[in-house]
Amino acid sequence: MSIEGKVALITGATRGIGKAIALELGRQGAVVVGTATSDNGATSITHYLQEAGVTGAGFCLDVGSNESVGAVIKAVQDQFGPVAIIVNNAGITRDNIMLRMKEDEWDSVLNTNLTSVYRMVKGCLRGMTKARWGRIINVSSVVASMGNAGQANYAAAKSGMEGFSRALAREVGSRNITVNCVAPGFIDTDMTSGLPEEHKLALQKQIPMGRLGQPEEVAAVVGFLASDAGGYVTGDTIHVNGGMYMS
Amino acid sequence: MSNIEDRVKKIIAEQLGVKEEEVTIDASFVEDLGADSLDTVELVMALEEEFETEIPDEEAEKITTVRLAIDYINAHQ
C-alpha cells in the first residue's frame, strides 16, 4: 500500500518548503490539497499542481480561524475524500527581542504556528481513526531545539509543536496513525531571504555542510514519513539542517 | 425498541471486538468490555453513523454503559 490516491493536505503551500512538499507527495501519487492565505495563492497552487500532473487543488485558508479550518476541511472531504496525510507547514515570524515583544506578536505567532496544528488535527483525526491509517507531519524548526535570540515566540510555538506531536503519537499509535516533526535549519526560502547578507554568511559558517538547504531536501524527508517506508517512525523529530545542530 | 437495542449491541460488539453475548445491558465499556478512551470515542462515532445523529461531546462523555447508549439513542430517534 502506497500513498497513491490518498488525500494529502499541506498548509502554507504557495511557495518554499510547503510547495516542495506538495510536489513531492504529488509525485508519490497522493491527491494534493495545498492551502494559501489568499485566493491568488490558491490559484497558483492549483496551477503548479496541474503543471506537474498532480490531482488536487489550492484552497484559501486562514489557519488562525476555527471557522476557516472547519469549512476547508469539509470542502476538501466533499471534493476529494477524507484527509489521510496532513502536513502542518504554515507559519509566520514576528521577531523581536523579549524586552520589546508585544503581546500581539506573541499571540499571532502562537495562534498561527501552534494552535493551528490543534485545529487542523482535530478536524482530520476522526477520518484517520476510522480509516486506521494516517500521517500527521508538523514542520518545526531547528530553533525549537537551539533557541534563537529574537524568536522567543517562534521557538515556543515550534517546541510546543514537537511536544504536541509526541503526546499525540502516544494517543493514536494503536490506530496506525504516525505523528512526527521535521525540523528544517536554514533553508533557501522567502522566510530566510530577508535576512541581512552578513547574517547569512555568519550562519553558513555554523553549518558543517557550508550552505543553506533547499526546500526539496526538506520535502524528501516529509515524503519519507508520509510513505509506507516511514510507517514505524512516530513521535520523532527529524532534523534537516546540514549539521548546524546535532542532538 | 428491541430493534434499536439489537443494533446498538451489535455495534458495540463490533467496535470493541467482543462477543455479542458479552454485551449485556449493564456492561460498562471500560470496566467490563475492555475499552480504552479512544475506543469509546470511536464507539460514539459508529453510533452516530448508524443512527444518523450527532452526539455532542458533553453527551458522549456520559455514555459509558450499554444501557446508557441504548437510552440515548431511544431518546434521540
TrEMBL record, chain A:
It catalyses: a (3R)-hydroxyacyl-[ACP] + NADP(+) = a 3-oxoacyl-[ACP] + NADPH + H(+). Its EC number is 1.1.1.100. InterPro entries: 3oxo_ACP_reduc, KR_dom, NAD(P)-bd_dom_sf, Sc_DH/Rdtase_CS, SDR, SDR_fam. This is 3-oxoacyl-[acyl-carrier-protein] reductase. GO terms for biological process: fatty acid elongation. The active site is at Y154. PANTHER family: 3-OXOACYL-(ACYL-CARRIER-PROTEIN) REDUCTASE, 3-OXOACYL-[ACYL-CARRIER-PROTEIN] REDUCTASE FABG. Belongs to the short-chain dehydrogenases/reductases (SDR) family. It is an enzyme of class 1 (oxidoreductase). CDD domains: BKR_SDR_c. GO terms for molecular function: 3-oxoacyl-[acyl-carrier-protein] reductase (NADPH) activity; NAD binding. NADP(+) binds at G12, A13, T14, R15, T37, N89, Y154, A155, A156, A157, K158, I187. Keywords: Fatty acid biosynthesis, Fatty acid metabolism, Lipid biosynthesis, Lipid metabolism, NADP, Oxidoreductase. It comes from Amphritea opalescens. Homotetramer. SUPFAM superfamilies: NAD(P)-binding Rossmann-fold domains. Pathway: Lipid metabolism; fatty acid biosynthesis.
From TrEMBL, chain B:
It is found in: Cytoplasm. Its main location: cytoplasm. The keyword Phosphoprotein applies. GO terms for biological process: Kdo2-lipid A biosynthetic process; lipid A biosynthetic process. GO terms for cellular component: cytosol; membrane. The modification O-(pantetheine 4'-phosphoryl)serine is found at S37. This is Acyl carrier protein. It comes from Amphritea opalescens. The gene is acpP.
